[in-house]
From TrEMBL:
Alphabetized UniProt keyword annotations: Hydrolase, Membrane, Protease, Transmembrane, Transmembrane helix
Subcellular location: Membrane
Record membrane topology: Multi-pass membrane protein
Protein name per its UniProtKB record: Protease
The family this protein is said to belong to: Belongs to the peptidase S54 family.
InterPro entries: Peptidase_S54_rhomboid_dom, Rhomboid-like_sf, Rhomboid_protease_S54
SUPFAM superfamilies, per database record: Rhomboid-like
GO BP of this protein: proteolysis
Pfam families: Rhomboid
TM region(s), chain numbering: 6-27, 47-66, 78-99, 166-189, 229-248
Length: 256
């Protein structure tokens, strides 16, 4: 099953590369209330990758940690685990994204109902970060002419455009399922020593997974607007993996 998943993910990426068909636009996961959201994206996003580096990191993790879990569980159970973790990651990520987009939507509506340079800056910083104030020249004009109808209309159009663009950014990748595999490996083989690529020091799987989880939680809570990594998707995959492994352990211990 690991081999089949590798072939599927790599094959889909090669189709994108050689046919130039934008599968990310079609199958990437969108914000739940985005105009381009489709329910099937909750599943299809995990088989799409945005670049060679993205593909390699996920497939390398699957290749390294997947086979031992598949050998332990069997192919069907491993596939079920993989898909449930991927779906769980999508649901957690979508829930967090819904909360964040609702906040951004309130800022958008607040600006439209009562436009001012201050509310324009607040929206822009929340949406795009401190490194982008949404066309500084427009902001300068707005600050000098806060009652100018033409400038207000330009600012409104800009705010609406930014909101619509952000709400339709697709999320792709098998990272949620991969982080589920990583957590399961740490739970089931906690004392297995791993050698990290860039730091040649052996570390037990349980500590490696714990550090990764803490890092993802910290990065997700920080929510840097310039950070396009789905940290809560990773945490969602780990959460569902924990629940599945615990449920299967309980099931195994039943003798009736």
């Amino acid at each position: 099953m690991v081999k089949n998943l590798l072939i599927l993910n790599i094959g889909v990426f090669l189709i994108m590369v050689f046919t130039k068909v934008d599968l990310i636009d079609i199958f990437g996961l969108r914000y739940l209330e985005a105009t381009d959201f489709r329910p099937y994206q909750l599943f299809t996003h995990m088989f799409i990758h945005s670049g060679w580096g993205h593909l390699f990191s996920n497939m390398f993790g699957l290749f390294m940690f997947g086979p031992l879990l598949e050998k332990m569980w069997g192919s069907k159970r491993f596939l079920a685990f993989y898909m449930i973790c991927g779906l769980g990651a999508a649901l957690i990520y979508s829930g967090v994204e819904y909360f964040e987009m609702e906040k951004l939507n309130r800022l958008k509506l607040s600006f439209i109902s009562s436009p001012s340079p201050e509310s324009y800056i607040k929206f822009s910083r929340d949406a795009l970060g401190n490194d982008d104030l949404s066309y500084p020249q427009l902001l300068n004009l707005f600050e000098k002419n806060p009652d100018n109808k033409e400038i207000i209309d330009l600012a409104k159009n800009r705010v609406i455009s930014v909101y619509n663009k952000i709400s339709n950014i697709p999320s792709v990748g098998a990272s949620g399922a991969l982080f589920g595999i990583l957590l399961a490996f740490g739970m089931l083989f906690p004392n297995t020593e791993l050698m990290m690529l860039f730091i040649p020091i052996p570390i037990k799987a349980k500590y490696f997974v714990a550090m990764y989880g803490i890092f993802e939680l910290y990065s997700g809570v920080q929510r840097n607007p310039g950070d396009h990594v789905g940290h809560f998707a990773h945490l969602g995959g780990m959460l569902f993996a924990f629940l599945i492994v615990k449920y299967w352990e309980r099931e195994r211990n039943r003798f009736y």
